[in-house]
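sanity check this record:

:::
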Amino acid sequence: MDIAKGPDATEEQLTLRMLFVNFGAIHTSSMTFMHAFYYLASDETYMKLLRSEVDEVVEQYGWTKDALDMMVIVDSFLKECQRLHAPGLAGLLRRAAQDFTFSNGITIPRGTIVGASILETHLDSSVYTNPLEFDPLRYVKLSTSSQNPSETQFGSAEPSKKKYDITAVSLDSLIFGYGRHACPGRFFAAAELKLMMAYLVRHYDVKLENGVKERPRDLTFGLNVMPNPFARAMFRKRR
């Protein structure tokens, strides 16, 4: 906002910038939460797993930032949802600054928009064990494993305990981008998602309508992926 000059500094243009940023923050967080919610509603074992951690942590730390930091299972659960249900099929979109020819002879002309396949990256069996399987404890296991063969492949300079957090970025986890253009709002988004998930599992029981046990299938249009908007769920407040 501060560096806007000339026509970019008008009230209209500054407002459009803010709307663009706000839009990018709203639908991505809400869709991630719905992906996670569908897992909870379709399998009660996930609810029990998260609720056990949330109840224990909240009883000890209350509703605080420290409490959210201690919810490592909730963190892993959400990150695993992101791994299998990214908001789009392509990430790290960039415009080629100059012509580039790969070793196989394929040339990318200057000005071409290129990107990485998020789905193929997140389903790489050389990085993730049983990549097609939803494992809510996947990142808890990775963070506690001292002999994990993929540790060096995540390329993170963060402390080992934070290496697999939902906010950690790497070439094997592209939800929040990578490098200097990684999403700056990911820390707020992570806190928001964990807080909503913790409140849900602590205060409500949920299930899909009519006893459905199969997680609703995602909808894909173009490069976009979204949680099924037609599924129906039931809530019951805990006593």
